[in-house]
Amino acid sequence: MSVRINLLPHREERRKRGRHHFAVLAGLTAALGIAIVGAGYLYVAGMISTQDERNAFLKSEIAKLDKEIAEIKKLKDEIAALLARKQIIETLQADRAQTVHLLDQLVRQMPEGVYLKSVRQRGVGVGLVGYSQSNARVSTLMRNIESSPWLANPKLVEIKASTVNKKRLAEFNMNLVVKRVPVTDAAKDAAKGAAKAPAKKG
Q1: Which of 55, 178, 180, 191 has the greatest CB tally within 10 Å of its CB?
Q2: What is the phi/psi pair of residue 180, to 5°?
Q3: Cβ(139)–Cβ(121) below 8 Å
Q4: How is domain 39-181 classified at the CATH fold level?
Q5: Alpha-carbon span 131 to 165, nearest angstrom
Q6: What letters, b where the CB count within 10 A reaches 16 and e where it falls short, cover 39-51?
Q7: What is the mean pLDDT of each run of 10 residues along the chain (202 residues)?
Q8: How is the chain split among helix, strand and coil, in percent rounded to 5?
Q9: Measuring CA to CA, which residue among 171, 173, 170 is closest to residue 134?
Q10: Residue 79 CA to chain centroid, in angstroms?
């Protein structure tokens, strides 16, 4: 007598267990994947947040540096303006002393028989127009100017015969140069002039 065993329920149960095991593994895998993705997202978000903080800090520091640079530029401009004003004042002091030396030297170097009609100064250049009793006296004036410590480069532009008060004279036109006075010397001369000036009575 043969015995028949029905294995269908056992196989079906085995299949159910396999499907359940697969579902559990799939769920665990999905959960692990989600956890990894979440951890990665949080890590990247943290890095981005940290970088944003660094960027904000750098922007703040750059803004401070830009402000300091603007202040430094402003100070440099003010210093340049002050130096320019100082240079102008020094030039005016030098020119004032220069005019004094010019007039003093014209008196000292003018030979007898020569007198000036006009003196025009433009910068360091000076133009003289005058009369002389002879051409030789004009040549003497030019030699005196060349030997002067404050005057230089006399150049005769024109000399011609002229009659003044029924006297026949030589009218001449001459250019020369006044030597630049060092600023220190100009300041000393200005100080001496101030010391020699008489005090005003109150």
Answers
A1: 178
A2: -65, 135
A3: no
A4: Gyrase A; domain 2 (3.30.1360)
A5: 12
A6: eeeeeeeeeeeee
A7: 59 78 86 89 89 91 92 92 84 70 88 92 89 93 92 92 89 90 50 47 40
A8: 65, 20, 15
A9: 170
A10: 9
Q: Which residue has the tokens 């981005």?
A: 48
Domain ranges of the chain: 39-181
Nearest Cα neighbor of 41 from 53, 49, 31 is 49
Residue 194's pLDDT is 44
Q: Which two tokens stand for residue 67?
A: 């402000």
Q: Could you give the CA distance from residue 121 to residue 100 in angstroms, rounded to a whole number?
A: 12
CA distance 34 to 9: 37
pTM for the model stands at 0.47
Burial (CB < 10 A; 0-12, 13-18, 19+), residue 155, is exposed
Question: Residue 192 has what pLDDT?
Answer: 53
> CA 32 → CA 36, 37, 38, distances in Å?
6, 9, 10
Q: What is the DSSP letter of 147?
A: T
Query: In this structure, is the dihedral angle defined by the CA atoms of residues 83, 84, 85 and 88, taken in order, positive or negative?
Result: positive
Question: For residues 170 and 133, is the Cβ–Cβ distance under 8 A?
Answer: yes
Q: How many CB atoms lie within 10 A of CB 69?
A: 10
Report whether 156 contacts 172 (CB < 8 A): yes
